Amino acid sequence: MVKIRLTRLLEHCAKQQFTSKSVIxxxxxxxxxxxxxxxxxxxxxxxxxxxxxxxxxxxxxWSILARSxxxxxxxxDVGMSCDMSAGQFSWFQxxxxxxxxxxxDRWAALDPERIALVWEKDEPGDTVKVTYAQLKTMVAKIAxxxxxxxxxxxxxxxxxxPVSPIAVATMLATARIGAVHSVIFAGFSSDALATxxxxxxxxxxxxxxxxxxxxxxxxxxxxVDTALENVDSVKNVFVMRRTGTDVNMVANRDTWLDDGLxxxxxxxxxxxxxxEDPLFLLYTSGSTGKPKGVSHSSAGYLxxxxxxxxxxxxxxxxxxxxxxxxxxxxxxxxxxxxxxxxNGGTSLxxxxxxxxxxxxxxxxxxxxxxxxxxxxxPTALRLLIRYGDDYVTKYDRSSLRKxxxxxxxxxxxxxxxxxxxxxxxxxxxxxxxxQTETGGIAISPRPSAPGAPLAPGKPQRPMFGMxxxxxxxxxxIVEGNKVDGALCLATPWPGIARTLFGDHDRFVNTYxxxxxxxxFTGDGAHRDENGDYQITGRMDDVINVTGHRLGTAxxxxxxxxxxxxxxxxxxGFPHPxxxxxxxxxxxxxxxxxxxxxxxxREELRKIVKTKISGFAIPEHILFxxxxxxxxxxxxxxRILRKIAADKSDELGDISTLAEPDVVQIIINKHLHK
Length: 673
Ligand code: 7RM
Description:
This protein is α/β, with parallel strands linked by helices. It contains 19 helices and 30 strands. Strands 12-11-8-6-7-14-15-23 form an eight-stranded mixed β-sheet, sandwiched between helices. A seven-stranded mixed β-sheet has the order 5-4-17-16-18-19-20, sandwiched between helices. α1 crosses α2, α3 packs across α10 and α12 packs across α14 (412-422). The termini are far apart. It binds 5'-O-(acetylsulfamoyl)adenosine. The site of 5'-O-(acetylsulfamoyl)adenosine (7RM) has 19 residues, from α10, β20, β24 and β25.
């Protein structure tokens, strides 16, 4: 059983100062946001109060929400039974429910014509709206088709699909029959796809003829064909028509989805599953090469996605929630599909890219569809900043109410641009820190509740049920403020991953053995003078220069403050005297005036010296047109470290990069520096 510790961290929120000049409209915190929690007493007046209940009485807190916000076929007996050291988590034991009923049927019954999904296709203005009644039909038909193909409770269905209503309906259809989905991002190579399908022993794959992104066609079916040459478990492939192109169809294995569905009825009984039955697997990279199949539960995951979506963004039914993440990532699972639909909301499905047909795409879409919440990644913002403000200001953004950031630290320049230019200083920016493994947002300001003045560049405050602690090298808790440490979470929450598919030992070793009794996030964090959390980067990105610990993100932050710098990535490299030296890869803004590289280097060194310290000054500053990034936008620092260490012959597999070509350019520049 878990030990519940009283939090010491949250006494400071009321004292914080919001640095922006803007005046932000805030809704008063009323008990109506959490009507079901009135039984905790009527003295809950702030995020802090509510949060305290959630971590001192997690079982009670989450059980109340589970009963009021989810529809159950059978009530549960035990709210929570968890053992952090063993990596064993059980929430709402004895209960039975169906996730598709919670995400679709109950809203279709209440309000069949309500829009569930707004599909913004790659071609601007080509929008498809799907009501809850229509979604219910799609889910039932696909569920029947999967049953016909022999999919049973617990079987894994692989999805390799564009962001589309069919993809969402297929995820929910697997849930309807108690099967498990594994969405594989439709930009992964055939090798990456095969590895994931094999590991999960997927029985069926649902794909499309082609995907369309940024005006380019991507041959999904062809990639599936190549992948399946090395996969034995897959017996059936269903192919959605996206472009209508001709593709190879293998007899007795492949079926056009349309043809298959035409023989299926729109009535499919939902299978009640146990709270702890898996809803999905999602593969994510770890520190070793083998991807980890992160496994999430049905009831706990859904509840956590719903509650965090509603309360981090202050979402209300009727608003259009615009999370532009791909469904191939956890952000797409929790904040395109399960959070919005579980709450009976309306969710945007964004199939395109930030720069197609031009860098105004997001804001043109905001104007046309009247998007109320925009949730995206800092990397896209930094890209768009380079094209200037005109692409933003020519569109009406008055529908926007909240802006969300996810996936990596948001540097202050990007935060400020998001807040001042995109949001016209009117919308709160919600920096959300979380992971595939946490299932939903873990640290994030909740600007809709009092006592949460925003601090740019920091996710700030723990969400409900989250008890962050910082630990030092010896595993001791670091108390007080203005301190750094390994970011761990001390209290279990319903959305935590339950295992790594087929490898519970790896689950325990990765997350629960490093600091026994805690979930270790792999990230480092700083707790500032106000008690706010700031993520300093992955622990493996911490470098040691002349005995000083230095977060590479800190240096990046300072470098991007220079008006000509668009993006920076910093790594350590072996240094004979200092231990490690600082190596900075810098992308300059497109519209930069002509300044000599040497002069710029001098200015950048000076900024680092004044903003951090002499020891943090980069030894090398390499100007590059791009950085090696994964398709979800994360910089692969591993590659940059190898190049900086003169080991570019040891780069390993770079096939999962969005633009592998940039690597050779960087190597050449490094050799001639
Ligand atoms: C949601 C997601 C998780 C890792 C995490 C961090 C980094 C994510 C932020 C962030 C600073 C943020 N899941 N990260 N969000 N760092 N501020 N707001 O991205 O599993 O793909 O990645 O991403 O390092 O550990 S993920």
